[in-house]
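// run 5 | inverse folding | seed 20
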């Protein structure tokens, strides 16, 4: 299963990057962190992107796969004089995978992700879910292949997600993959030889039973409007709180029925970044769900680094999608 060079690269790269992110989290996220100190996630972001950039360059040279990577990070800041300590930390963690790596090589590998999107490109969020990562909670490594504006392959590495069907913390973690037209599957992140298990969304059809997967982080959505949306739909079920694209994994596995990214009142013109939605969206769709923007339009990944033609995101198990769109319209979202 998933024997193509693209799938093999994506699975191996995400597994490796997720293990590295977990290492950074274990060593750097402590009770001694000051409020607002995001240095662990900074180090983790850079280190994970360096590893994926390195592996993509190798896979592209060896197998001729697409070598264009649109990543969240750039090494520009790491090359500054006052960033020497951070670069040392990033290099230290990258050397756990590439022992001979130099700081210059690490920066070059990070900048593999500085490419501009074309007809075909990979997109990477090296650590999706900053607050979850810093709490020692849920986060994800998200990698996807986009071709002609449509996601064709997506992989999610969720180091703290024991099983995708539940938001519960766990040691083993989960790895999810979806390929367009071939379904979505998961296996234990820590067991590369484990069986692949099919993913399927929940069959809930009653809006009252909708379990909404809601972000703990408040910066990118309008939580008050989500309350209004739940009321408009008649939702009675308890929500599931968690950050990152790990939510997408749980929805795809039937552990919830709906998630929404509404526009914050202070950022009405915000448009989603491609790396925040690509991998998670195809996992949900290939598990039988549906993903659109708030107006019901498919997500368009052909517009550069953002979903410039889309407003927000709504993802459901499919059966509840029209009810969700109608409720969104009723509250003026």
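// decoded
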């Amino acid at each position: 299963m998933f024997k193509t060079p693209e799938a093999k690269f994506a699975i191996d790269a995400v597994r490796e990057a997720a293990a590295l992110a977990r290492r950074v989290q274990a060593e750097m996220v402590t009770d001694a962190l000051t409020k607002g100190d995001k240095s662990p996630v900074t180090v983790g972001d850079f280190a994970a992107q360096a590893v994926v950039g390195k592996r993509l360059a190798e896979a592209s040279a060896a197998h001729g796969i697409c070598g264009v990577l649109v990543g969240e990070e750039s090494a520009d800041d790491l090359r500054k004089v006052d960033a020497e300590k951070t670069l040392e930390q990033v290099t230290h963690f990258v050397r756990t995978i590439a022992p001979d790596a130099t700081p210059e090589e690490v920066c070059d590998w990070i900048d593999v992700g500085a490419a501009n999107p074309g007809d075909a490109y990979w997109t990477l969020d090296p650590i999706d879910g900053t607050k979850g990562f810093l709490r020692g909670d849920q986060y994800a490594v998200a990698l996807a292949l986009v071709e002609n504006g449509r996601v064709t392959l997506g992989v999610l590495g969720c180091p703290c997600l024991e099983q995708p069907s539940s938001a519960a913390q766990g040691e083993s973690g989960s790895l999810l993959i979806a390929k367009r037209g071939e379904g979505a599957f998961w296996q234990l992140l820590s067991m590369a030889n484990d069986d692949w298990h099919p993913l399927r969304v929940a069959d809930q059809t009653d809006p009252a039973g909708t379990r909404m997967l809601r972000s703990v982080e408040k910066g990118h959505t309008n939580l008050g409007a989500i309350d209004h949306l739940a009321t408009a739909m008649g939702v009675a079920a308890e929500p599931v709180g968690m950050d990152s694209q790990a939510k997408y994994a749980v929805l795809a596995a039937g552990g919830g029925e709906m998630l929404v990214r509404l526009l914050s009142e202070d950022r009405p013109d915000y448009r989603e970044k491609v790396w925040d939605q690509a991998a998670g969206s195809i996992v949900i769709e290939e598990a039988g769900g549906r993903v659109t923007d708030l107006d019901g339009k498919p997500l368009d990944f052909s517009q550069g680094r953002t979903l410039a033609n889309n407003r927000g995101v709504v993802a459901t198990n499919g059966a509840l999608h029209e009810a969700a769109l109608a409720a969104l319209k009723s509250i003026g979202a």
